[in-house]
């Protein structure tokens, strides 16, 4: 048996970098920076998280891969480009997650079911092509480590689509009507931080249940459908 | 330190609890058996200011020369997990001692029911509208592993070990780790969810021989997950130190090793047969 290094939780932030994100990408970046700082204040939790940041538009750019945030001086910066291809994002996860898990296991880690935080402001421009890689990603028969997907819709995102992306109804969040988009993203970033810390804590307690904090001004997508 | 240590920091005081020491230590010998026990707060709980939710209890039964001991791990999601662990250990060992006083063999299912009832009685005095048993589950859930170690005339010993939940036991001889409970597929699935005041329908004790030169170890999952199958560096460190009984504080220092990602509370209770003298 390889040296037993304990349990880690792979976390994937999959952020929409389509052109329409332009007005909010700065706030999204500062939200990620806050997340980084929050994790550094929780070194025990941070030790058990491996962080990947993917920016998607018509393709996927890897901004960070399986990083231990304790050793990162700053998080990468998201930019904006072209269209909103959900298919590119889910297709990337479909091959990346199994490879990442194999890599972590070969180092001696036990791996908890990954968490994907999916941030988008818009409808997919590749309807319905994205549904095939999505279905294969979340099907535990096909993808053994099928992730929990927490979907956050901001701006023009439609509740129905966000609900379709989230792997459970309670993992779907959408900006409340009338709430500033920037504020919504800031609050989402705080919720993201807390839920990552809570997920790692739950993992420490031998519970693999994913805990998601609900931001005050966000409402469950199911409530506004 | 074993491998990469966790971050260095001064532990925070535990919040919202009666007095709960960060570390508990015990150690003594009877004529036939040597005991060491320690329970240390995990690095996560030290960092976030939670109390130590593990505990142990150990007693000597003078008339028979037996040692009775229990190790418990309060379920971290319940409010009074630390008290649940303490109540389970104390009530299980007390019940076992009373049984020995009567000259009777242990009745393990009954013993676990008694430990559960101790939780229910305590829960009754706590606020809540639900039934006391439900309240006990909501406030005080805990695993427990209990042992009765009887010395033999040749200096060896024999141990009976019974558990509810994922706390576990090993016999260590030289560098060879033998788990007392064989994890089967169904076993693994079940133990993850079982905790007092729930008791499995089928419950029995495993009986293991303790030859001279071996040691019985009871531990919570904070020890078990770090140890794995004993073949890694944690198993090596423990085997090197526990070949014979170390002084109690050295035993505790061993248990309190720093190793990245292993930040749960840890409790270890060890019983060595002294080999006759």
Topology:
The complex is a heterodimer of chains A (225) and B (277).
Chain A: E1 6-16, H1 25-40, H2 43-46, E2 49-56, E3 60-67, H3 86-107, E4 109-111, E5 115-120, H4 131-138, E6 148-153, H5 159-165, E7 172-175, H6 181-204, E8 218-220, H7 221-224
Parallel strand pairs in A: 1-2, 1-4, 1-5, 5-6, 6-7
Antiparallel strand pairs in A: 2-3, 7-8
Helix pairs in contact in A: 1-6, 3-4
Chain B: E1 23-29, E2 33-40, H1 43-48, E3 54-61, E4 66-74, H2 81-101, H3 108-124, H4 132-140, E5 142-151, E6 157-164, E7 168-173, E8 176-179, H5 185-191, E9 206-210, E10 214-219, H6 221-227, H7 233-241, H8 248-255, E11 266-273
Antiparallel strand pairs in B: 1-2, 2-11, 3-4, 4-5, 5-6, 6-9, 7-8, 7-10, 10-11
Helix pairs in contact in B: 2-3, 3-4
Number of helices of chain A: 7
The profile of the biggest β sheet of chain B is:
6 strands, antiparallel
Strand content of chain B: 25-35%
Topology pattern of chain B, helix = H, strand = E: EEHEEHHHEEEEHEEHHHE
What pattern of helices and strands is seen along the backbone of chain A?
A: EHHEEHEEHEHEHEH
Which CATH architecture of chain B?
A: 4-Layer Sandwich
Cα-to-Cα separation, first versus last residue of chain B: 36 Å
How many individual domains of chain B? 1
CATH topology of chain B: Phosphatase 2c, domain 1
| The named CATH superfamily of chain B | PPM-type phosphatase domain
Task: Compute the average pLDDT of chain A.
Answer: 79
What is the percent of helical residues of chain A? 25-40%
| DSSP summary, beta strand count of chain B | 11
CATH topology of chain A: Rossmann fold
- By secondary-structure content and strand pairing, the structural class of chain A works out as alpha/beta
Q: Residue ranges of chain A: pLDDT <50 for 5 or more in a row?
A: 203-225
Query: Averaged pLDDT of chain B, please?
Result: 91
């Amino acid at each position: 048996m390889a040296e037993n290094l304990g349990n880690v939780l792979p976390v994937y932030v999959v952020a929409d970098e389509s052109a329409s994100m332009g007005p909010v990408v700065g706030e999204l970046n500062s939200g990620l920076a806050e997340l980084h700082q929050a994790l550094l204040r929780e070194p025990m939790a941070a030790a058990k998280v491996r962080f990947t940041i993917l920016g998607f538009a018509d393709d996927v750019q890897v901004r960070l891969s399986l990083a231990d945030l304790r050793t990162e001086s700053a998080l990468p910066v998201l930019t904006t480009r072209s269209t909103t291809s959900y298919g590119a994002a889910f297709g990337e996860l479909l091959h990346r997650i199994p490879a990442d898990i194999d890599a972590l296991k070969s180092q001696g880690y036990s791996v908890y079911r990954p968490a994907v935080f999916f941030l988008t402001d818009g409808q997919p421009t590749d309807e319905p092509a994205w549904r095939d890689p999505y279905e294969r990603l979340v099907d535990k028969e096909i993808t053994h480590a099928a992730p929990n997907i927490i979907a956050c819709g901001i701006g023009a995102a439609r509740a129905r689509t966000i609900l379709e992306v989230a792997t459970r109804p309670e993992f779907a969040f959408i900006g409340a009507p009338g709430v500033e988009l920037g504020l919504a993203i800031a609050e989402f970033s705080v919720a993201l931080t807390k839920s990552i810390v809570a997920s790692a804590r739950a993992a420490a307690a031998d519970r693999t249940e994913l805990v998601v904090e609900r931001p005050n001004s966000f409402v469950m997508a199911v409530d506004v459908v | 330190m074993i491998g990469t240590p966790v971050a260095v920091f001064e532990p925070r005081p535990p919040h919202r609890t009666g007095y709960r020491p960060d570390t508990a230590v015990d150690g003594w010998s009877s004529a036939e058996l040597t005991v060491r026990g320690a329970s240390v707060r995990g690095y996560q709980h030290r960092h976030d200011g939670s109390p130590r939710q593990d505990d142990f209890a150990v007693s000597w039964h003078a008339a028979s020369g037996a040692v009775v001991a229990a190790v418990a791990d309060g379920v971290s999601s319940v409010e009074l997990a630390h008290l649940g662990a303490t109540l389970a250990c104390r009530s299980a060992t007390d019940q076992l001692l009373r049984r020995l006083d009567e000259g009777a063999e242990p009745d393990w299912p009954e013993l676990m029911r008694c430990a559960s009832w101790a939780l229910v009685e305590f829960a009754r005095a706590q606020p809540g509208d639900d039934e006391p048993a439900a309240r006990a589950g909501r406030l005080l859930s805990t695993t427990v592993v209990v042992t009765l170690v009887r010395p033999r005339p040749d200096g060896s010993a024999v141990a009976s070990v019974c558990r509810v939940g994922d706390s576990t036991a090993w016999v260590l001889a030289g560098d060879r780790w033998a788990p007392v409970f064989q994890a089967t597929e169904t076993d693994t699935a079940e133990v993850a969810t079982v905790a007092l005041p729930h008791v499995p329908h089928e419950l029995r004790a495993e009986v293991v021989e303790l030859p001279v030169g071996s040691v019985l170890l009871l531990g919570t999952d904070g020890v078990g997950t770090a140890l794995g199958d004993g073949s890694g560096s944690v198993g090596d460190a423990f085997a090197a130190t526990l070949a014979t009984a170390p002084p109690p504080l050295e035993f505790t220092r061993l248990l309190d090793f720093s190793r990245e990602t292993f930040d749960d509370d840890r409790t270890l209770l060890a019983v060595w047969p002294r080999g006759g003298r």
